[in-house]
Design a protein that fits this description.
The complex is a heterodimer. Chain A is of the alpha/beta class. Chain A has helices at about 45-50, 75-80, 85-90, 95-105, 110-125, 140-150, 170-185, 225-230; strands at about 5-15, 20-30, 35-40, 60-65, 65-70, 80-85, 160, 190-195, 205-210, 215-220. Chain A has one domain (about 5-230): P-loop containing nucleotide triphosphate hydrolases (Rossmann fold, 3-Layer(aba) Sandwich). Chain B is an all-alpha fold. The mean pLDDT of chain B is about 85. The chains are: A alpha/beta, B mainly alpha.
């Protein structure tokens, strides 16, 4: 599979000297459904911000399609669509359609194409019939799906979602998960940043676990030794004896 | 997110929705000017125009009675304003008489004029989304200055988005303070200190919100040369602009 992005020896030192990332090496390929997990403060959100050029590295580099992200962050953001944990912060349109159209409008496409992409993205996330509604009339789960639609409308190669299930109830988690798995089935690489492994691991092709700014596991979703979950600040998703396939929240 | 923005836009195939945002803006300004400046004999005609404009903006779509009830609820602020104006004009402690009942009717007329301005503005905000106005403003600026990298409309969109977020930040800061005993029986100095802490928390929350929005714009590839929503200026828009200008001129001069 072709490479989408790669972090090489990535170091991030905060102004107070604390090391946020400590020489991270990570490769993201087409077709990946990567779950990036770790305890709070392990560096997973910071790493994802580096992938889209929102943070400046103190050392090492991030490449997107072979080009340094720092040199052209805009190009990286067209390839990797970033969905914030706080969906409200991402919403800039006064209607769902206007919001979903914001990204493609920035690509300089003709308005008819912009609108078609926005309508398609809203349909993909199940909000097609709400196109003219105001975002503040949506529920938390719907707003999260709107944020994903805004990214999908830009047709990126990869969708990176930071804690997409935070503060959502079961139906909303299922609806967001369905959208994410559909985007993956559609050929997009997916990166889900989370510490709630049990909600998404069944659909992953790869698990990456971070601790203290380092990648401490990178492999199959069910390949991490069970005794290590607690040690890494995570809840063992297999504690009930379920298999990887049985973990899915879509059933 | 609180819904406190001025735009009450809701989708519907209302006649007022088919006009260009800028032609409606010109009509709003002209009719508001006429409402505040025209002689009293014009007011009934302007009132009829205001009701017709509201109807064209779909204000009575839920039914006339329900529509009027909702409008009255939104226009509640006119009551204290009207009372203030009436008291200010009728009570004159420095004049020959403390009460000037003859001023009551002009005060009432003034409130009626304000109510009409409210009605025209309400019709505008009900039939125009901030995004449409933003696209129209940017389109106009680009045409006037012949530059494709101008985007003043985005500031409008962001401001309209930012107002509810500021209210949210304030509510969060206030509720957090209340949960920790703010507002209880305190002396003046502790209360002032607590209020300053609340204000600090609000300002910090608002700045965080602004930074998040800026990052969201970045990640969504914002560029000042973004494609604008196509909003054609149709012959009907020229008719609206001309008619409202003529109505305003007539109301002011006749």
């Amino acid at each position: 599979m072709a490479e989408i992005a790669r972090a090489r020896g990535l170091v991030h030192r905060f102004p107070d000297g604390v090391l946020g990332l400590d020489g991270v090496d990570l490769r993201l390929d087409e077709g990946d459904f990567l779950v990036l997990a770790g305890r709070n403060g392990s560096g997973k959100t910071l790493l994802s911000r580096h992938l889209v050029g929102l943070s400046m590295a103190s050392g090492g580099e991030v490449l997107c399609r072979g080009r340094p992200v720092a040199a052209d962050p805009q190009a990286a953001r067209r390839i990797i669509g970033y969905v914030f944990q706080d969906s409200d912060a991402q919403i800039v349109g006064q209607t769902l359609l206007e919001d979903a159209a914001f990204g493609p409008a920035n690509l300089g496409l003709p308005w008819a194409e912009v609108k078609a992409r926005a309508v398609e993205a809203l349909s993909l996330v199940g909000l097609g019939s709400f196109a003219e509604r105001r975002p503040d009339s949506l529920s938390g789960g719907e707003r999260r799906r709107l944020a994903i639609a805004g990214v999908l409308a830009m047709r990126p190669d990869c969708v990176l979602l930071d804690e997409p299930f935070a503060n959502l109830d079961l139906p909303a988690i299922r609806s967001v998960l369905a959208v994410i798995t559909a985007a993956h089935a559609d050929g997009r690489a997916i990166v889900v940043v989370t510490h709630e492994l049990e909600k998404v691991l069944a659909h992953a092709t790869r698990l990456v676990v971070m601790d203290a700014g380092r990648v401490v596991y990178d492999g199959a979703p069910d390949g991490l030794a069970r005794e290590r979950y607690e040690e890494l600040g995570l809840r063992d998703p297999f504690r009930s004896g379920a298999s990887l396939e049985e973990l899915t929240w879509l059933r | 997110m609180a819904s406190v923005g001025p735009f009450r836009f809701s989708w519907g195939d209302f006649p007022a929705r088919r006009f260009h945002p800028l032609s409606k803006l010109v009509a709003l300004l002209a009719l508001s000017l006429a409402s505040t400046q025209a002689r009293a004999l014009w007011l009934p005609a302007l009132a009829v125009a205001a009701m017709a404009t509201l109807a064209a903006a779909g204000a009575f779509r839920p039914g006339l009675a329900q529509g009027l009830r909702l409008l009255a609820r939104d226009a509640r602020f006119l009551i204290p304003l009207g009372l203030f104006i009436a008291v200010f004009r009728v009570v004159d402690p420095w004049g020959p008489h403390l009460f000037e009942p003859s001023e009551f009717l002009p005060a009432l007329l003034y409130v009626a004029r304000l109510a009409m301005v409210f009605a025209f503005a309400e019709a505008y905000f009900r039939s125009t989304s901030a995004g449409e106005l933003s696209a129209a403003t940017t389109g106009l600026a680009r045409r006037l200055f012949r530059r494709d990298d101008l985007d003043p409309g985005l500031y409008l969109s962001l401001a309209v988005n930012f107002i509810p977020r500021c209210f949210d930040a304030w509510e969060r800061a206030r509720e957090a303070a209340l949960a920790r005993g703010y507002g209880g029986r305190q002396g003046r100095r502790p209360r002032l200190r607590a209020s300053l802490a609340l204000l600090e928390s609000f300002v910090a929350g608002s700045i965080r919100g602004a930074l998040s929005t800026a990052e969201a714009l970045e990640t969504r590839g914002y560029t000042p040369g973004r494609t604008l929503q196509s909003l054609p200026f149709r012959p009907a828009d020229f008719v609206l602009v001309s008619a409202s200008a003529v109505a305003a001129a007539a109301a002011l001069l006749v």
